[in-house]
Amino acid sequence: MTFETLDKIADAYIPLLGFLSFFSLILNFVVLVKKARERRFELRKLLISRCVTFRFLTFYEAINFRISTTSLWKFCARFSLLLLLVGLVYGLMFLDNRLAIWHKLGGVDYSTHTALSLVLTLFLATGHRKYRGLVAASFVAYLLLMLYQGYHTVADIVSTAAVVGLFGFVFLGVSGKIGKKPHSAH
After folding, report:
1. N or C, which end of the chain has less CB nearby within 10 Å?
2. CA distance 182 to 104
3. Chunked in runs of 10, what are the mean pLDDT values of the chain (186 residues)?
């Protein structure tokens, strides 16, 4: 393949990851709305049957219909996480442009391509576990393509991935706890 063809492939990778990330959010939202409608119908039917028989909802029945609220919080948390991760990438780019942090660390460059592809890859991998291998392989292939094309050096990629990856894993760790029950100590 020619340099220009590989360049077009490299230029299409991050927009593709961005599209897939937003598409996965939209798909999750559509599923959430569908489940909420089904739950609302079930709740309405249950409430009518309880009113006719003059019985209250049991605790289990009431808790069961709270699930859609938890799902909505998880959706909002994932959407916020995506914005936060992308904000991290461009915030670090802004800081590096102003303070030349990466250059002062040994003449390396902050790789926005590495940072953005890393956070989008992490976002997709955590949201769709069965595609983790494919997403990770595409990320490694993209890094190798950047090296082959001469966009960045190994030092640029490793230094950027180390810093962004550290923050990314912290954000992902915090967001992974949303909606989960705390473990009780026995």
Report:
1. C
2. 43
3. 88 93 86 71 60 54 55 77 92 94 88 95 87 93 94 93 89 62 49
